[in-house]
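Tutorial handout. Part one gives the primary structure; part two gives the three-dimensional structure as tokens.
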Amino acid sequence: MDICPDLGALRARLARAGRIGFVPTMGNLHEGHLALARQARAEADCVVASIFVNRLQFGPNEDFDRYPRTFAADCQAFEAAGVDVIFAPDEPVLYPEAQTYRVQAPSLADELEGAFRPGFFGGVCTVVLKLFNAVQPQLAVFGKKDRQQLEVIRGMVRQFNLPIDIVAGETVRAPDGLALSSRNGYLSAAERAEAARLNRVLRQTGKALRASQANYPEIEAAAMRELASAGWAPDYVAVRKNDGLQWPPATGPVRGEHYVVLGAARLGSTRLIDNVDVFVED
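Part two.
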């Protein structure tokens, strides 16, 4: 495995790499990241992973400075997962001057996560576009745990006519259902025992949706009340269509359609997100 800290080394290494699969990360890896790398391995001649903590996607009161940097362990884990090249730029490599040009994210970026993290998706899109330009992959793998991010990136690739297949990786979970996340490490032991409730509540909401309940605000509010009663501070629970996370029809769920229930809530000082797929049977 090769580690490339700058664009010159990266482009020289990839000059004759064949079909490139790309997995962008901020490091502090867990099994979810490694599953994405293995998925890319199955579809590409050369797998590139990036490790870069992107300042642009952190708000002023978020955890940029304390986000764990575990580079040596990350390299070992990626090598074991079959990664061929790690692109590990310092900030001056990706941002050699103040980034005054930004990707303007779509209206979806102002909803759900975007409503609570203003500017987040603009920062994500800007760095991902820069990484795509650096790596020039034929496919890139993004996890479904960050469902809104996946949809925003898909839209960016489509509208900018980028020749990249965006592949969705399934969410990897702990045995109790908690979605694996780098931020799970912030949880205390008691909080970790409680954390799986978010997934249970989202799955319960999905059951209500499958029962053809058309009153989305009511079932969303019920989910938020359950979280709050257990000591959480919920930001949102929302039912959306799978296709672009559009709003579901006001008349109720359509039989045979695919929906998503998304949620975000703070447990202690740690903010967790998750989502579940809901298929309404014919």
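Part three, for discussion. The first strand starts at residue 2 and ends at 4. The chain has a mean pLDDT of 94.
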